[in-house]
Write a structure and sequence with these properties.
With 417 residues, the protein is mainly α. Helix 3 crosses helix 7, helix 5 packs parallel to helix 8 and helix 16 packs parallel to helix 18. The relative contact order is 0.05.
Length: 417
């Protein structure tokens, strides 16, 4: 076994060398005010030839593997980041780090296959169909997620201390460390999919909630992406006793920075739909929809905000169904404004959502029918000047046909009555 450890150690160094070399060639200056050097954080995590031992123990090789994985997680995360703390990492290095980790994971399973299988089974995860290049991640999750949680928490605001504001928290521990940990956390979570992630909820959720509770929008955003991935890859029953606390965290974060508003909407919509499916009168649907509408009403002309909401809200609308009638007084005034927006994307999304609402509620005999027809008529004329005039007019015609069908059905119903 010692020879296998030695072989794995040599492989680690072999995989690290091109990454280390690429890092050394990058001209890097830490962002002003960040107080941390991400490059200096990564470099010590990569093993080098000077660390070769005549023999190496299991605990030593495990520590080297964990550190190498930390480095790969952070470098790979830069592919989806525009934040200044990671934007200096070139695309080719991210791809290389991801490829190197997959090779290590497969080699690790060859050496520690039995041990790895035992540890994964202890987590309640069926190892049978987990790809080899993902087994190492699953094994490391119980060890590393608590570390990320504590790192994020270090620069969080102490809510029990009213004078403890963001600047004070960041002065104690630079927020850059929390941002790095949040990106690493998100990378680990998104490496695992359905059905395996469901068995890891008790490890993932506490760290995700800590990220959502942080004052930094960047840290919050990574927590939101992680919970969105969770919502897409677990069953509602997997969330256990965390259901209410997760939804409460979603509601508290709805009035977030515009930079992460699209993450807020997608996360909240998926989680409330996943957990409250079949219960359209759930108070969580009511609270979440009201919080979102209030946020939209504050700046109805905010293009990014309205597009994100229109793009991701469909599952929530479908979950609420006929109960949407109670929200018409707030939804339709926004729709009537947005139908005449300058950008075609907003207009098309509004028309799509109107069709969905019509099909869910039949709009019945509400006072909004006449106004809707008037606004659609005006929009039909305005569409002549739009680049997407064919699509816009096509959507309008479909809505008018639906309204006519419902009017006919309503008349027949009254006649039969």
């Amino acid at each position: 076994m010692s020879k296998s450890f030695s072989d794995l150690h040599h492989l680690l160094i072999q995989l690290s060398e091109p990454i280390t070399e690429s890092l050394s060639k990058i001209q890097y200056t830490p962002p002003e005010g960040s107080y941390i050097s991400v490059k200096a954080l990564i470099e010590p995590l990569l093993p080098h030839k000077a660390s070769l031992y005549p023999s190496i123990a299991e605990a030593q090789i495990h520590a080297l593997i964990r550190d190498f994985t930390f480095a790969c997680a952070l470098i790979s995360s830069s592919q989806s980041s525009t934040h200044e703390i990671l934007s200096w990492i070139p695309q080719h290095l991210s791809v290389s780090a991801n490829s190197s980790f997959c090779k290590l994971s497969e080699a690790y399973c060859g050496v520690f296959g039995e041990t790895n299988a035992k540890r994964i089974v202890e987590l309640g995860v069926d190892i049978g169909s987990i790809p080899e290049d993902r087994r190492l991640v699953v094994e490391l999750i119980p060890e590393v997620l608590p570390l990320f949680k504590e790192r994020i928490k270090e620069s969080s605001i102490d809510k029990s201390d009213e004078s403890h504001e963001a600047l004070a928290a960041s002065a104690r521990v630079p927020v850059g460390f929390a941002i790095v940990a949040a990106y690493q956390f998100r990378w680990f979570v998104t490496q695992v999919g359905y059905p395996y992630l469901g068995q890891l909820c008790t490890l993932v959720i506490p760290c995700a909630l800590t990220a959502l509770d942080h004052w930094s929008a960047e840290v919050k955003g990574q927590g939101m992406i992680s919970l969105t991935h969770l919502a897409k890859n677990v069953d509602a029953t997997d969330l256990g006793g965390y259901e209410d606390v997760i939804l409460d965290a979603c509601c508290h974060n709805i009035a977030s920075s515009d930079d992460i508003w699209h993450h807020v909407v997608e996360m909240s919509t998926l989680l409330v739909t996943c957990t409250q499916r079949g219960n359209p009168r759930s108070p969580w649907f009511e609270r979440m929809l009201n919080e979102m509408l209030s946020h939209l009403e504050r700046q109805p002309r905010n293009k990014e905000r309205r597009i994100a909401w229109l793009k991701y809200i469909e599952p929530l609308l479908s979950g609420v169904g006929l109960v949407l009638l109670a929200h018409f007084r707030r939804i339709f005034p926004l729709f009537f404004k947005w139908m005449h927006a300058d950008d075609d994307e907003t207009v098309l999304l509004v028309l799509e959502r109107i069709q969905i609402i019509l099909r869910l509620t039949w709009i019945r005999n509400t006072l909004y029918v006449g106004r809707l027809v008037d606004e659609l008529t005006i929009l039909y004329k305005e569409a002549a000047l739009k680049r997407t005039h064919k699509e816009v007019r096509g959507q309008i015609v479909q809505i008018l046909i639906l309204l006519q069908q419902y009017a006919i059905q309503s008349s027949l119903g009254q006649a039969q009555g």
